[in-house]
Write a structure and sequence with these properties.
The protein has 153 residues and is mostly beta strands. The chain is built from 1 helix and 10 strands, in the order αββββββββββ. β1 and β2 form a beta hairpin. It is globular.
């Protein structure tokens, strides 16, 4: 188990996941609920991490987030996003990519398209970088348990 956690942490760093400070995130649970805030100690190999809710007072307690209850963790540019923007599901022709192109279909029917360098079906999750450069999502940590299928493009 220790080797798996170590491999997960290394994949996190390799995929740009090194956190130098609290990261803006939107946590989406498998039950459909959502939490916006700042990740305090996110690590893909961990069973849980803590979030300081958006707008919470400095003294407010952190929310404990259990990884296996999640659909995905979205590392975002801002919490508001652009509700009228329709995120593209295709890649810019000729633009260099890091990783393999992939389509991820969730149990709830949502489909995301992006690239990944660390997909391994035996791991509890993987990072996905959106195909659309203008996406509000910088990267997403996808929890494998919430995924229906992964298709390489």
């Amino acid at each position: 188990h220790g080797d798996t956690a170590k491999a997960e942490r290394q994949a996190f760093v390799n995929e740009g996941g090194c956190m130098t400070g609290p990261a803006k995130i939107v946590v989406r649970y498998q039950n459909g609920s959502m939490l916006k805030g700042y990740a305090q100690d996110f690590s893909p190999g961990a069973q849980y991490f803590h979030v300081k809710a958006e707008g919470a007072k400095t003294s407010a307690p952190l929310t404990r987030v259990v990884m296996q209850e999640l659909k995905a963790v979205f590392f975002v540019r801002d919490f508001v996003g652009n509700g009228s923007y329709k995120e593209g599901k295709s890649f810019v022709p000729g633009k260099p990519l890091s990783g393999r192109k992939v389509e991820v279909a969730f149990q709830d029917g949502e489909v995301l398209v992006g690239t990944t360098t660390g997909y391994d079906p035996t791991r509890p999750g993987f990072f996905l970088f959106p195909a659309d450069d203008r996406s509000n999502n910088v990267r997403m940590y996808i929890v494998a348990k919430a995924v229906k299928s992964v298709r390489f493009l």
